[in-house]
Amino acid sequence: TKTLKQLAKPTGVRVGTAIDTSALASDATYSTAAAAQFDSVTPENVMKWEVVEPERGRFDFTEADKLVAYAKAHKQKVRGHTLVWHSQLPAWLTSGVEDGSIDKKALKKILKQHIATEMGHFKGDIWAWDVVNEAFNEDGTLRDSLWLQQLGPDYIADAFRWAHKADPKAILFYNDYNTEGINAKSDAAYKLIKELRSEGVPVQGFGVQGHLSTDYGLPNDMQANFHRFAKVGLKTAVTEADVRITLPASPAEVQAQDNGYSYMLQSCLLERSCISFTVWGFTDKYSWIPGVFPGEGQANLYDEDYQPKSAYAAVQRDLQLA
Ligand code: G3I
Question: Would you say the CB of residue 29 lies under 6 angstroms from ligand 1?
Fold first, then answer.
C-alpha cells in the first residue's frame, strides 16, 4: 500500500507533519515513519525565538539545522515556524521590554534583526515561512501582544517586508487558529491581508492551523474561506491539523475525528490555492494536547504504538480520491 506522500504526489498538495526533534533523534520508528509518510516538515518548536536566540546575540540553530538536514536527506520541503509571535519569546526580550531597558525603537531594530538573521541563516532551505503567527483575537481585534503594544499595528507589514528582503523565494504566510471557517477572526485577517496586498506588502500565504476538537462542530465554509484569500492572490494551507477528543473516546467521537480530518483535507484538495496539508504531529505518543488540555488527547493519525487509526484511513482515502 502507498504512503501518504505517494498518494498526495499527483494532487500537487504536500502532506506534512510537525517534527519533534528530540523524538527524531531518540526514536527510530518515529524518524522512519516521518520520512516515509510526509513530504513536508515543520519544526514544532526549534525555530522559535526562545530556542534560536536563548541569550541576546547568542544564536543556536543546532536543532533546527538537524531538521533541515533530515528534510534534505528525505527530499522534504520545510515550513519555517515562526518568526513573529507573542509566545515562546526569549526571557531576555520580554524582561528587557518590561524593565524598559529595551525601548520601542530598540525593539523594532531587534525584530528586524531577528527576521534577517534567522531567515538569512536558512536562506534557500525554507519553502514557506509562518512570518506572523496568531495576531488576532476571536472577535477580530488585534491581539494585545508585546508587538502591538510596543510597535503598533504596523509591525505586521514591517515583518513581511523585512522577511521578503531576507529570503525573496520563500512563500510568506500569515498563520492563525480558529480561522478555518468564515468568522469574525478570519474576516479580520482577510480584511487586513487584502489591505496589505493593495499596498504592495509581500504577504503571500494564509495558513489555517486546524486545531479542532470533537467537542465543537466543524468550521463553516472552509473552502470558501480559502477561496476568498486565493482571489486576492494568496496561496493557502492547513498548517497544524489535529482533532482532539475528550477521553475516553466513544466510537461517535472517533467518527467525528475522522470527519474533522477529512473536512480539512478535502477543503484543501478542492481549492487550487491550497499547497499543503500539515498535521501537528502524527503520533499520539508525542502530542502537545494532553499537556495543554488535560483529559483530552488521541488527536493524531497514529496511536502511541504507531498503529494507524481510522483517521489515517480517512486521509488515505481522500488523497486517493482527489
Ligand atoms: O524544552 C523545554 C524543556 O527543556 C523543559 O524541561 C520542559 C519543561 O516544561 O519544557 C520544554 O519546553 C516545552 C516545549 O514545548 C518543547 O517541548 C514547553 O514547556 C512547552 O510549552 C512547549 O509547547 C509547545 C507550544 O507550542 C508552546 O506554545 C508545543 O510543543 C507546540 O506543539 C505548540 O505549538 C503551537 C504552534 O507553535 C502555534 N500554534 C499552536 C500550537 C499548539 O499550541
Answer: no
Give the Cα separation of 89 and 52 in Å (integer).
Answer: 10
Closest CA to 310 of 269, 257, 239, 263: 257
Q: Output the pTM of the full model.
A: 0.97
- CATH number of the domain that residue 245 is part of: 3.20.20.80
CB atoms within 10 A of CB 51: 18
Instruction: State how many domains the chain has.
Output: 1
Which residue segment(s) compose the domain that 150 sits in? 4-321
Give mean pLDDT in consecutive 10-residue pieces for the chain, a chain of 322 residues. 97 98 98 98 98 98 98 98 98 98 98 98 98 98 98 98 98 98 98 98 98 97 98 98 98 98 98 98 98 98 98 98 96
Residues with a catalytic annotation lie at 134, 240
ipTM: 0.93
Indicate the top mutation candidate among 288, 289, 293 to test ligand 1's pocket, ranked by most ligand atoms within 8 A of CB. Answer: 288
Q: Quote the CA–CA distance of 3 and 305 in Å, as a whole number.
A: 18
- Give the Å distance between the CA of 45 and the centre of ligand 1: 6
